[in-house]
Every structure is written in C-alpha cells, then in structure tokens.
Amino acid sequence: MPAVSAASTEGGFYPPSAFYFKVVFGNSANSPDASFQDISGITSEMTTEDVAEGGENRFVHKLPRGVKHSNLELKRGIAPLTSPLVTWCKSVFEGGLALAIQPKTIRVYLLDEKAQPLRGWVFVNAYPVKWDVESFNSTKNEVAIEKIAFSYSYSERLK
C-alpha cells in the first residue's frame, strides 16, 4: 500500500492533520510569537432576519442580513514581557486607550509534513479584545496558559 503524501490530502482522499500550523502577525513571518498550542474561532456565520408572509401565516422567510465572525482565539504558554505580542496586548489593555489601538493582519496556516501551507486564513484589522490567564492549580503539573482573543473586520480563506 503506498504511503500517504501531501498530494493525496490535496486530492481529497485524506483530510489534513490539524496539529501542525503557523501563525503570522503583520509582516513578522519568523516571530517567536508564532507558536501556539491551540487556535479556535475560525468561524463565519450568515445572520438572517425572519419575515412573515403577508396574509399567509404558514410561511416565514429567512432573509440574509450579513456575515458575522466569532473572535479568533489563540492559546499558548505564558510568554515573556519581551514578546512583541505581549507588548502589543499590554499597550491595548493597560494603556487606558490613551493611544490608538494599532490593528494588525493575522495569518493562520495549516502546514503539511514539509512545513508548506495546505490551507490558510487571513484576519484583517485584528486587535486583542480579551487576554486571559488560565487558573493556577497546585495539584497539577501543567504549563501556565494564556489565551488571547482577537476581534477583526473580516477574514478570507487563502487556500
């Protein structure tokens, strides 16, 4: 039986694995902030409006209103203060809105075994809206985790 390759995943025979991915903030392709444990929130949903049929009570039409996106959530071990992502988050959350928030473009790539992008998503005008440190527990031996949620204007699938 032949080995499964990236080409066979592209041909639709096997879905790609979800554990090998890369995150890029702005133009910093080789940033130390590219390592994350978990990414969630790559979601688009069409909102609808219910309109009752005039004079005909049996029908309710669902008309499209627009697309909404959930927040993009990234999860990783707590990073040092020198991290560019931590610096950005600190300026947003601890700056008291004294300075304008600087949105960035965030790119997420699902990679193959040769570190080449299989799929990609771009999140435009993203900025942090939540910075959460998970609870500490003295009875467990786990890595201290931070979660950062980003709002964004829109997203596009690249591949």
From TrEMBL:
It comes from the Bacteria. Pfam families: Phage_T4_gp19. InterPro entries: CHP02241, Phage_T4_Gp19. GO terms for molecular function: structural molecule activity. PANTHER family: CONSERVED HYPOTHETICAL PHAGE TAIL PROTEIN. This is Phage tail protein. It comes from Cellvibrio mixtus.
